[in-house]
Amino acid sequence: MTASTVRTRRAVGAVAATATAALLLTGCVSNEPRESEDDAASGPVAVTENDEPGDEVVIGFSAPAADHGWMGAITSAAKAEAEKYEDVTLQVAEGTNDVNVQISQIEGFIDQGVDAIVLLPFDGAALTDVALEAMEAGIPVINVDREFTSPFAARATVLGDNYGMGVSAGTYICEQLGDNPDAVVAEIAGIDSLPLTQDRSQGFKDALDDCGLDVDARVAAEFTVESGEEQTANLLSAEPQIDAIWNHDDDQGVGVLAAIENAGRDEFFVVGGAGSANMMREIQDEESVVDATVIYPSTQAADGVKLARLVAQNKTVSDLASIGVPRTVQLYAPVVTADNVEEFLPIGFES
Amino acid sequence: MSQRSALMGPALRMGGLVLALVLLVVVGVATAGERFWSTGNLITVLSLAAVTGVVSIGMTFVITSGGIDLSVGAVVGLASVWASTLSTQYAAEDFGWWVIPLTALAVGLVAGLINGLLVAYGKMPAFMATLAMLAAARGLAEIIAGRRTQIVTVEPFFDVFQSRPLGVPAIVWIFVVVAAAGWFLLNRTTFGRRTVAVGGNPEASRLAGIKIKRHTLYLYGLAGLTAGIGAVILLARTTAGSSTHGTLLELDVIAAVVVGGTLLAGGRGTITGTVLGVLIFSTLTNVFVLNNLDSSVQAIAKGAIIVGAVLLQQWFAARERVTAT
């Protein structure tokens, strides 16, 4: 009895020592690459006379927590855009998925009397009231990505095009498979309860309908690598022969590709969604099953910052004939393929 | 009479689980035929069960002892992130692929031992201590990873963990080995008997000379260790570490353990039941996907299975009490 306790104690001691050694071995938990390379991320640039320095403006910025690559890119692109202007001071509130915290951040901006607010709400409906408050206080609000429920709550709205993403993906697949009405098309959606997922799926279905195809198999993941892998593994098991797959989200796409590799399948091509740098590198690689991805711009908050600056400085958008910043800007969902990937790689986000 | 029911109880309970699994398999074959009953698909089901399965083995011990570990999912995330940072990957390139799994196991073990210290020596309720670890481990994982997906590029790691000895993926073998080791540890060793005793009657176990505090420490360490193994499997499957790995895994794991017949109150645990519980859930998911059914309906089915299993458990427990007296 005592002998066995001593033995266990020794065993446990040894295990604990090994564990500590292993953690020491990997040293600090650093993610610094060995040789650093400058990543000068800048997409196609059009310089206009609007970019000339104007009145000094303070812009408040609030967005959800950067818990996935796309959302991380949203905030960093907004910051990068603001840094290009010496007349803009961007006050970035800590990203949060708690609507109460986000509401208090906007209240803080109002108290402080900023010149404009760029707001990507965690939940559009929940942030509508406080946005109205800001507008009533004379602070223009630029609403990004997730719409408020009241048209009075924002001076301008920048939106991605979820339905359009589905249409772009579906149209691309139609072009590739158009002559084969029996082709098997599979869809790996994101979180099914979100309106954005429903819009993407509807657009995809409508575009496929147009060329006589339909979605033969559909699974919904959760925008995470793990769920993407799990759902895809099941999907591949369920469908022994697939011609094309559309995956809604490149962040979960890492898992999707892992599952495809694990299953050793390559009889189909994959179209991605959102536009991560990682997927674009897959597109460049001719061996990869990934042929294309559909952009959901991670630069839309950067657009919001640009518009907020124009509104606060009483300027107008230079390439439009009408006066005043437009009420709504809906961004295009282009398809990235091997032909144009070079052009899009700079705006691809690291997932 | 009472002796017969004592033997019949576990057999009946296990019979119920096997019946449920067979039922699912019949539904799978009836609705998807060849696509379900193919070697490839059965391997898919087992591979999908591997992460939940391995972590469930550790959880079975904790629950058997009357405890609970809510942190396993977050610890899986943390271990996957720590084992896939660039510095870990460089170390793996310099020293060998084993650095990655060893790091994951070490992170899991240390997190588990901290849980154990808090519960056993800090006298915190297990629910609160491990809830705190859940939050902290997830947060630390997010900080280390910078909320990015860390793609693993150490090829030798995949050569080992994506290999298929005898045509079966290595990760399934890991599940089998961990389950077998867990069964042996629970049913054939002093450690296992003490675990059951501590869960059944802590006061009596203390009087019988079991060092409850130290034993509790080991149990949470074990649960953390299995979470580390789970992280290795996830790394091998997804080729990436992420702070989102293992999100809500704790719920799937607890569900599988309890459906399997381990008493949530402690004092009785079964590894075979846990394995069956895990297989039931992963087969359920598979059958739903094969039939292209909505994932929301699947969530309802999962809920129904949990309720059914626990009601059945209580009914058996009540019957045993009646026959015993």
From TrEMBL, chain A:
Coiled coil: none
UniProt keyword terms in alphabetical order: Signal
Residue ranges, annotated region (Disordered): 32-54
Entry protein name: Sugar ABC transporter substrate-binding protein
Signal peptide: 1-21
Top-level division of the source organism's lineage: Bacteria
Location(s) in or outside the cell: Cell envelope
Family: Belongs to the bacterial solute-binding protein 2 family.
UniProt-recorded Gene Ontology molecular function terms: carbohydrate binding
InterPro entries in the cross-refs: Peripla_BP_I, SBP_2_dom
Domain (Periplasmic binding protein) ranges: 59-315
Gene3D superfamilies tied to this protein: 3.40.50.2300
GO CC terms of this entry: cell envelope
TrEMBL record, chain B:
Subcellular location: Cell membrane
Keywords: Cell membrane, Membrane, Transmembrane, Transmembrane helix
GO cellular component term of the entry, any: plasma membrane
Gene Ontology molecular functions: transmembrane transporter activity
Pfam families for the chain: BPD_transp_2
Membrane-crossing residue ranges in chain numbering: 42-63, 70-92, 98-119, 126-146, 166-186, 217-236, 273-293
Name of this chain's protein: Sugar ABC transporter permease
Organism the protein comes from: Promicromonospora citrea
Gene (name only): rbsC
